[in-house]
Amino acid sequence: MPRHSRILLILTGVLALLNACAGAPELRRSGFLDDYTKLAPPEGRKDLRVYRSPDLDFEKFNALLVEDAVAWFDPDSEATDILPIERKRLTDEFSAIVRKTLKARGYNLVDAPGERVLRVRIAITELYVRFGPLATEGDKKGRIKLDGATLEADLKESLTGRTLFAVMTGRRGGVAAMSGKPTEAVFQYWADQLADLLEESR
Prior knowledge:
This protein has a single domain, classed as 3-Layer(aba) Sandwich (Rossmann fold), CATH 3.40.50. Helices cover 26% and strands 31% of the residues. It contains four helices and six strands, in the order ααβββαβββα. The protein has helices spanning 3-10, 14-19, 84-104, 183-200; strands spanning 48-52, 63-66, 70-73, 117-133, 141-157, 163-177. Strands 1, 2, 3, 4, 5 and 6 form a six-stranded mixed beta sheet that branches. It is globular, with a radius of gyration of 18 Å.
């Protein structure tokens, strides 16, 4: 299997790894979010870091503008050469699933900013990949293992850019093998988690 195709399979295991996280994760600030200092774990959720502005009032807004997702590798990852076309395919799929999920939860989605529109940004960041030797290859690079990943997202006033909500969740450490779950199922799980957090803020 081509190397970029093997790397592509890593993304199908991201959520299985994150969902298995039992303790508070050590998360690296990728720079996707504007301000990480306000993030804090909500009660009973050590796997999350969340910020909710006191001004977040969904009654003041009537629509969401969901931007296309992005995917970033950890700069120290042993594998970072996923093809741009494959990266775009994955981020397009994730974006579509997030939009479909939010629409199903009753949110009105629009394609342009406005006075009562919240802009939603989403990213898969800090993808950290290791190569492990295969039994038949000795010390050669073979099996790919995921050692970390982070979901980052925020909601901003679409005209002012002021952040009203932000979330960060992930795991670093404890090498985990790829789960083999279909990409669509993984992305759906992640979209549901984001939608649940927004519901809690309503």
